[in-house]
Structure formats: C-alpha cells, structure tokens
Amino acid sequence: MTGNKRARIKQLVRTLFRTFLMAWAIALVFIGIFGRDESWKMIAGPADMGAVDFKSVARSSWPNNFLLCPPDYCAPGLPDQIPPVFPVPATRLAELFHEAAMADARVTQVYTNNLDRARYVQRSERLHFPDTISALFIPVDEANSTLAVYSRSQIGYSDRGVNENRVYRWLEALSAKTAN
Fold first, then answer.
1. pTM for this one?
2. Residue 39 lies in a domain
C-alpha cells in the first residue's frame, strides 16, 4: 500500500469517527432536552403500535416479534407457539394476564375493553425501546379459556429473544396463578 493510500484511509477513518461522535453528541442533547420516551416517539412514532386482528395478522419478516396463537385463530404456520388451555373463564384469564403483565418492570397498559382484549407497552431498561404486547382472551367453554398474544418491537431488527422470553415468562405466571 502506498503512503498516499494510507493517508487517505486514515483521513476517512478520522472523518467517520468525527461524524459518529457528532451524531452521538446530537442524540445525547436531543434525549437530554426531550427525554428518552418522547425522543423515541418523535423518531419512530407512538410507542403503542395499535390493535392486532389475530385472524389476519401480518407478521413482520424481521426476527423482533413473537406470536402465540391457537391454530384456529391464526393462519396455519403463522404462530411461533400454540397456547395452553387454562382452567379459568376468559374474563378471569384476562385479569390474571393483567396481573402478570403489570408485575414486570416498565409495563404500561395502553388499552383494554375489559372483556377479551388488552394491549401493553413495555420499554427496555436502558434505551427505553418500546415493545407492544397485544392479547386476546378466548373462551373454550364456560370454565376454560386460552389466549393469543403478539409481542413485537417497534425499533430494531432483532430483539435477541426479548419478545419470546416475555411471552413465556407471562405464560409461566398464568400457569402458576391458574394452578391454585
């Protein structure tokens, strides 16, 4: 490599590093003025990604979501996991799900119809990235019910299993609460 090429590469690296530092400084000022949550809202839109129609849900091709759904509620092959049937009516399952959701840190309920649907936003610890969790509570019969849950990240390509782990954690809490 000639000296001229080396000098150009060094200059390019310095320019890229300075650009990165400037972008980072601007981001810190932006977050300092508006706060993390409002900054994400201004960049990516509202934290709540809205309602889900489980019968016609369009999954993202990105690996930053997790869908738990009975086979008769979602298209075949669409769910990541089939939910269990719980030995409680659907209205009670909704109450227990709410307890499990609210026991997690940084969770806010953004919607409920107090019957069969609820939606939550949970933010990551450090950067406060918002994830939307939509739930549908489905009666199987008078004494039993199941549910559909779609947990999805608003920001980022991969969630490193965060949405899947959250759904399983809340399912474990439901199983423990309905076992009593």
1. 0.81
2. no
